[in-house]
Amino acid sequence: MQLVVSFNFMSLTEFKIRQAKTKDKIYYLADDDGLSLKIEPHGRKSWSYRYSVAGTNKRPRVKLGIYPVMSLKEARSARDGYKLNSDMGENRLSNKIKSFKDVCEEWLEFKIKNSFQDEPRCGVIQLAKKCLHNDIYTELNDVPFTDVKRYDLVSVVKKIEYREVKEPVKKAYSYLNQIYDYAVAMGYCEYNIAHGLHKILVNNKIKKNYPYLKAKDISKFILKLNQVNTHPIIKKALWFKLYTGVRGSELLLSESHHFDLDNKIWKIPAFHIKQFRRKVILGHDIPDFLVPLSDQAIFIIKSALEWSHGEKYVFYSPRNKNQHLHFNTLNTIVRKMGYSKNELSSHGLRSTFSTILNESGLFQSNWIEAQLSHTDKNKTRASYNHAEYFTQRIEMMQWWGNYIERHIKEQAILD
Q1: Rounded CA gap, 371 and 176, in Å?
Q2: Largest Cα–Cα distance of the chain, in whole Å?
Q3: Count of alpha carbons within 13 angstroms of residue 407, beta-carbon side
Q4: CA torsion sign, 380 to 386 to 387 to 388?
Q5: Per residue in 268-288, pLDDT tens?
Q6: What is the DSSP letter of 99?
Q7: Closest by alpha carbon to 374, among 388, 363, 361?
Q8: What is the 3-state secondary structure (H, E, C) of 130-160?
């Protein structure tokens, strides 16, 4: 971005600063002894101090803070502090203060390294970067980290909340809390000023589970799935998800060698299971998760395997060679089928599976939980038995396949 320097040979005043108008380009208003106010086209104003390095033509610029969080008087005091310590050399001067962004970027790098460079499929690191750049850096980017006050964080969170977006405001609080926990551990500050920020958030929504199909809604869903105009492999992915009750990532990452069709078993690598991914990365030896397949599920997967011949993934992307369907694709088709986000999500098919099996009264809840690959809350059990209740689950999954098939036949009669 281009900038223009406005030479002002008179000291600044609070009145002059307030009256300063934005321009098409960045420009500076100079105060005394190297202090200047940077004014950006979108209206942001920030202080900086520019000094000369003895014996060179270098004139580094040090960022001091944002106006009006840092007043003119405070900016001059900060400048004087730098001047007082100028004899300690350029490095001490230019590196004395970490900006808020410096610490945030350092935290992000730490977070990436601590995940062994494995960024989860849900894009946790990307979401954090997006929140920082779109919602937090816009307010606190160049402010010295130690100058940020609790009220500054409150202002950031409240500004996001004002947009009436639930998830971004929750994520902003979470990231700020993690950043300050990290900063305390590193010695950049004495305590976490972001702790408890969630207490100021307006709780205006009742917590809801993923919207799902009731038993009476399944026939209508089948009709819409048959009628929707989309690629056949996407339809097969939704059918297979309905028949198996697995998570979206487990479904979309499946490869042909994961299926033992003769024994009607799907072997999902533990690395693809949400709650075991981290343990596998840390070196734990965890067996594949076994999913018994009904006759109906076998019919779907055989068809999908024929369609995906030569592709890396069974549920491949029709657009990109050797890539699986995007994680949002299934929800996109559910919307195309006429369901709003409050009526059904692709993950809701998993809830439909669980609810109907539980309501049938035919199967023990621990069989259903095992099929859903939910971890056992009994901490005394050290082993990961992914074949648990396998015999019982074979019968249960075939019952479920027959149940869906009855709805298909009912819909055919109505047609």
Answers
A1: 37
A2: 92
A3: 21
A4: positive
A5: 999 898 888 878 877 888 899
A6: B
A7: 388
A8: HHHHHHHHHHHCCCEHHHCCHHHHHHHHHHH
Model pLDDT, residue 192: 94
State the number of CA atoms in the 13 A half-sphere of 241 facing the CB.
Answer: 28
8 Å CB contact between 246 and 274: no
* pTM of the entire predicted model: 0.63
Three-state DSSP state, 261 = coil
Cβ–Cβ < 8 Å for 283, 118: no
What is the Cα gyration radius of the chain? 29
- 381 versus 71: the higher-pLDDT residue is 71
Amino acid at 116: F
Lowest mean pLDDT among 36-45, 81-90, 376-385: 376-385
How many residues are recorded in the chain? 415
pLDDT at 381 over 50: no
Query: How far apart are the C-alpha atoms of 353 and 210, rounded to whole Å?
Result: 13
Q: Of 48, 52, 81, 82, whose CA–CA distance to 66 is shortest?
A: 48
Residue 89's SS3 state is coil
CA 131, 137, 140, 144 torsion: positive or negative? Answer: positive
Least trusted range by pLDDT, from 36-40, 43-47, 207-211 = 207-211
